Amino acid sequence: MANLHILDHPLIQNKLTRLRNIATNNHNFRLLLEELTALMVYEITRDYPLREVEVVTPLERTIGKVLDVPIVLVPILRAGTGMLGSVLNLIPTAKVGHIGLYRDPKTLKPIEYYSKLPAELEDAQVIIVDPMLATGGSAVAAVDLIKKEGGKKIQFLCLVAAPEGAEALVQAHPDIPIYTAALDRRLNEHGYILPGLGDAGDRIFGT
Ligand code: PRP
Ligand code: URA
Fold first, then answer.
1. Ligand nearest to the Cα of 81, by number
2. Given Cys at both, which of 30, 35, 43, 165 links 133, Cβ 3.0 to 4.6 Å?
């Protein structure tokens, strides 16, 4: 899959392994998820455009570079909000949209319950964040919504993807690059990723 990028930096893989571990408690799970997200965001923003600006140092005037694209972060509720803070720490000027989706446990289809996106999505670089890409239903629905509101440049960032979900997202939106720390084996009969890391929302929020 041309548009699927597995980020295999050793620090990313090391943190992912600790995140997967059932012995990792909620507190450490949240910290690891934030650290892992920051490392991945560092990788996926490396081609963002820059523009030159003048800056005055304590010694002299010089030319520096700043980001030259408005950035919109869109966490998919709930679990995506666990990744939001660490992206905002790195890109404090980003605007934030929210998309509320949950999977119907029987059909595994996404049910939308909330959506609020910033205006002027057309020119923005949008990063959707959600730890898990399982059947792909939530990701496809989130991209549908963002495109409907005018979003054009969209990246999808997750921590663990199932082949089924990656395939579904590539089929529905071949223009969207997908970034993940791991492409796992498959889904189980309840739509959970194997080996995965369990229910991301439950492990973040202790539910
Ligand atoms: C999880 C996860 C994704 C979705 C992935 O959320 O955070 O949003 O499942 O599954 P899919 O690819 O099959 O759509 P969940 O629906 O459990 O809601 P939560 O974040 O509120 O726990
Ligand atoms: N959502 C999760 O949180 N975990 C999975 O394995 C699949 C969907």
1. 1
2. 165
Ligand 2 centroid to 146 CA: how many Å? Answer: 22
Element (H, E) at 112: strand 110-116
- Whether ligand 2 lies within 6 angstroms of the CB of 149 is answered as no
- pLDDT higher than 90, residue 157: yes
Domain count, the chain: 1
Domain containing 12 equals: 4-205
CATH number at residue 73: 3.40.50.2020
| Cα separation, 147 vs 111, whole angstroms | 18
Measured by CA distance, the residue closest to atom 7 of ligand 2 is: 192
Residue nearest to atom 13 of ligand 1 (CA): 135
Q: Which three-class secondary structure string do you get for 27-69?
A: HHHHHHHHHHHHHHHHHHCCCCCEEEEEEECCCCEEEEEEECC
| pLDDT tens digits, one per residue of 98-113 | 999 998 989 999 999 9
Per the annotation, the verdict on 202 as an active-site residue is yes
Q: What is the DSSP letter of 148?
A: H
DSSP structural state of residue 174: T
- Per-residue confidence (pLDDT) for residue 2, from 0 to 100: 82
Task: Indicate whether 123 pLDDT > 90.
Answer: yes
Ligand 2 contact, 132 CB (< 6 A): yes
